[in-house]
Specification:
This protein has 17 helices and eight strands. The longest helix has about 35 residues. The chain is mainly alpha-helical. Strand 2 and strand 3 form a beta hairpin. It has a two-stranded antiparallel sheet.
Length: about 525
């Protein structure tokens, strides 16, 4: 099945709508697309949530190197959608980009599962260091294939991630009062779906990876992604397709920036024809609109650093605790991320059904609170989550010292894993505010032809945040090990100081919140938030 002929299905606000029949679009089409994203998130979290256990286990990497490598990969996976969105808006269109990315995704996941079947480092010749530690070098072929597969998944996500959500939002016509009114709920329920999926996959695949095999644990996401592609194709006849009609994203951005520079240089000395001047004025306003987004984008970056911690350092921290439930079952350390998903799902429902109606009566704004107020609330909650994480780590280190386990990295610290639940729950609440707020804000505030690029901007916050996290971990690891010192991220976490790192991130988050508050109060929306009539 193929979509109607089109030069690009770029936006939902402004571009020519090629398919607007009553039988297309709306929730009927959006549900197909939501299910596709649910399956894609299942696949992504199925490999990312427990990746640090694979790197520090079968691949034998140190904790600091593994955390930095995962953050670098996560950063690339979140930054590449800027390129994917531009390709979709300028050339392929969203539908075709999603199809191509899905095929690439399946190939990458299949290669990843295959790479895990190679001999693990434990079967390679091992050496013992002076301090008694056993070091097993990984198979070079296994490591190379693993990283090629991992970055192939990142490239696939570059086209999939920004386009699927924008394509889903395109199914609601902003010129139709009824459809426009439910689009805000689409973003809420979209995030509900992907977080519910992430919660299930973290619990399922982390257990399989830790207790059955890594090959099966990586293979299940591949099969789920194949199912996602089939679901997407089944819904083709229900979709609405859009045509930007103007050459796409790159063309629009270049024209807008060129018009802005031209206007500044001419300073009114050369009079143009009225029509040309009017078109130029529109382009200049679009360029200014993109420029106004930069301070908001920049002051959200440190939130991306907090977002990078659960699948890396939080997971390593949890691995040292008593995770037994009863006498037979032990909770996988990565499975604690389920509490983040449960928190997000709960908060999204409460936000949509309780907070918004209550706030609407007070503020008179249809969305209850503005998009920037929602983002700021989430940044504040992430700061609290990091403070709680630091306090819990202090408690864990004290428990390890009291039990005489400082030099026993493989020993279980006599402290329950439930101590870590609050930091996951708080970060989940932060996600429900910040992540959904950023999705809606960047989608809503860019020109119509750049909707995919707008969603890629929100993803780039997470990407740059992951790169910042990787950079901080690498630098702090080098500095703290200098002159024979102990790294904050020592392989023996009982000798490390993750608490210092979390306090540093909390302090940076506080500064970020101040900067965000300053820029958000002066930001002028492209369209004022709707009022209740």
């Amino acid at each position: 099945m193929a979509p109607p002929a089109m030069s690009g299905d770029a936006g939902s606000s402004g571009p020519l709508l090629l398919s607007r029949a009553a039988s297309t679009g709306g929730w009927k089409a959006a549900l197909f697309i939501i299910w596709v994203e649910v399956a894609e998130r299942f696949a992504y979290y199925g490999i990312s949530a427990n990746l640090i256990s694979y790197l520090t286990g079968p691949l034998g990497q140190p904790t600091a190197a593994a955390a930095a490598a995962i953050n670098a990969w996560s950063g690339a996976a979140s930054m590449l959608p800027l390129l994917g969105a531009a390709v979709a808006d300028s050339w392929l269109g969203r539908y075709r980009t999603i199809l191509a990315s899905s095929v690439l995704y399946i190939a990458g996941l299949g290669m990843l599962a295959f790479s895990s079947l190679f001999p693990s480092p434990q079967s390679q010749p091992c050496s013992v260091s002076d301090d008694g530690r056993r070091s097993c070098p990984p198979s070079s072929l296994q490591t190379a294939l693993f990283y090629v597969s991992l970055y192939l998944v990142a490239i696939a996500q570059s086209g999939h991630k920004p386009c699927v959500q924008a394509f889903g939002a395109d199914q609601f016509d902003v010129t139709d009062p009824k459809e426009s009114a439910v689009r805000g709920s689409f973003f809420n329920w979209w995030y509900f779906g992907i977080c519910a999926s992430g919660t299930i996959t973290v619990a399922l695949t982390s257990y399989i990876q830790d207790n059955v095999s890594w090959g099966l644990g990586f293979g299940i996401p591949c099969l789920v992604m194949l199912l996602a592609l089939l679901i997407f194709l089944l819904g083709t006849r229900t979709y609405r397709f859009h045509d930007s009609g103007d050459g796409g994203a790159f063309s629009s951005v270049c024209k807008a920036i060129g018009a802005w520079r031209k206007t500044s240089q001419e300073a009114g000395l050369v009079e143009l024809e009225h029509g040309e001047r009017a078109e130029e004025a529109v382009l200049v306003e679009e360029a200014k609109g993109l420029a106004r987004l930069f301070p908001i984008w920049a002051t959200c970056l440190l939130y991306g650093v907090a977002f990078a911690q659960p699948p890396t350092l939080f997971t390593k921290q949890a691995a040292t605790l008593d995770r037994r439930v009863g006498s037979l079952f032990q909770i996988p350390s990565a499975a604690l991320q389920c509490f983040t998903g449960v928190s997000i799902v709960t908060c999204v429902v409460l936000y949509d059904r309780v907070l918004v109606p209550a706030a609407r009566r007070v503020t008179g704004v249809a969305s209850g609170i503005t998009m920037l107020q929602r983002i700021g609330t989430g940044i504040a909650l992430s700061m609290v989550s990091l403070l709680v994480a630091a306090l819990v780590e202090m408690r864990r280190l004290q428990a390890a010292r009291d039990a005489g386990l400082v030099d026993h990295p493989d020993a279980v610290v006599p402290m329950s894993l439930w101590w870590m639940v609050p930091q996951y729950v708080l970060l989940g609440a932060a996600d429900a505010f910040t992540m959904v707020g950023m999705q809606e804000f960047f989608y809503d505030q860019v020109p119509g032809v750049l909707k995919s690029l707008g969603l890629a901007l929100y993803l780039s916050v997470l990407g740059v945040g992951s790169f910042i996290s990787s950079f901080l971990i690498s630098v702090i690891d080098v500095v703290t090990r200098r002159n024979g010192g102990t790294s904050w991220f020592a392989d023996d976490l009982n000798r490390g100081h993750l608490d210092y790192f979390y306090l540093l991130l909390a302090a940076l988050a506080a500064l970020e919140l101040l900067a965000f508050g300053y820029f958000s109060t002066s930001y002028v929306y492209r369209r004022k938030p709707g009022n209740v009539h």
